[in-house]
Design goal:
With 280 residues, the protein is α/β, with parallel strands linked by helices. The protein contains five helices and twelve strands. The strands form five sheets. The protein has a four-stranded mixed β-sheet, with no helix packed on it. The chain has a two-stranded parallel sheet with strand order 1-2. It has a two-stranded parallel ribbon with strand order 3-4.
């Protein structure tokens, strides 16, 4: 006689049926003549575990894929993970620091091996979570962004772009991480607000007739100043526009220019223009 449990146990039932679906290849039925339907998962980073945003996004993708499959289409949901190089390296280095180790204690090859070990550990956790969500993905064709084929494709595109003059090297401001010793993207920068203060610096006029006071929160960048900006309607400085000032310490001459970016009510109303330290 069949017995029914008093309480529903979704974990046991879902795991049993999911294993059956995957073993039977039901997530990628053979339909060579059917209309193709493909979704490529936005690959999650191998830097930890999935969060609620992944659960929502993958649920929506699963609904679309299963619906297409039920309509008889050759539905393929490509699954994979993203190496997220710098973010993954930071995680590994934090683990090493907790154990009293540093990246520089190892050879390049040994450190790369440690990163790959972490990828195997974290990537395995992510794929387990995706299975636990019930995602009907084509696990037989799981991909990783550093698979050899992908790396060759990226290299080919870079070479093609360079050959067409669309890829070049230039001098630009970057977000430099002194710990990692490399540039990082804006997405990897953690912005933190701190209480600052204005420093008032006197820039003597080149003709010796006086000076102009500049208010700045970055006095350490003074040596790279290229100009002083004042608002064109600021009566205090209107007569100084077009003149030059002598940069303190170096004595280099820089112009006073009119620009609406300068706020007469902020600081002294005169601001230093330092393009080598400002993304603006």
């Amino acid at each position: 006689m069949m017995t029914i449990d008093k309480t529903f146990d979704p974990a046991t039932i879902e795991a049993r049926w999911y294993n059956y679906w995957e073993e039977q290849g039901l997530f990628r039925p053979e339909r060579p003549d059917a209309e193709p339907y493909t979704i490529v998962i936005p690959p999650p980073n191998v830097t930890g575990s999935l969060h609620i945003g992944h659960a929502l996004d993958n649920t929506l993708q699963d609904i679309l894929t299963r619906h297409a499959r039920l309509k008889g289409k050759d539905a393929l949901w490509v699954v994979g993970t993203d190496h997220a190089g710098i973010a993954t390296q930071m995680v590994v280095e934090r683990q090493m620091a907790a154990a009293g180790e540093k990246r520089t204690d190892l050879t390049r090859e040994a450190f790369v091996d440690k990163v790959w070990q972490w990828k195997a550990e974290s990537g395995g956790q992510i794929t387990r979570q995706l299975r636990r969500l019930g995602c009907s993905m084509d696990w037989a064709n799981e991909r990783f962004t550093m698979d050899e084929g992908f790396s060759k494709a990226v290299l080919k595109v870079f070479v093609d772009l360079h050959g067409r003059g669309l890829l070049y090297r230039d001098k630009r401001l970057v977000n430099w991480d002194p710990g990692l010793g490399t540039a990082i993207s804006d997405l990897e920068v953690e912005t933190r607000e701190v209480q600052g203060r204005f420093w008032h610096l006197r820039y003597p006029l080149a003709d010796g007739s006086g000076h102009i006071a500049v208010a700045t929160t970055r006095p350490e960048t003074m040596l790279a100043d290229m100009a002083i900006a004042v608002h064109p309607e600021d009566d205090r400085y209107r007569a100084l526009v077009g003149q030059q000032v002598r940069l303190p310490i170096t004595g280099r001459l820089i112009p006073i220019v009119a620009d609406e970016h300068a706020d007469p009510a902020l600081g002294s109303g005169a601001v230093k223009i330092t393009p080598g330290h400002d993304f603006n």
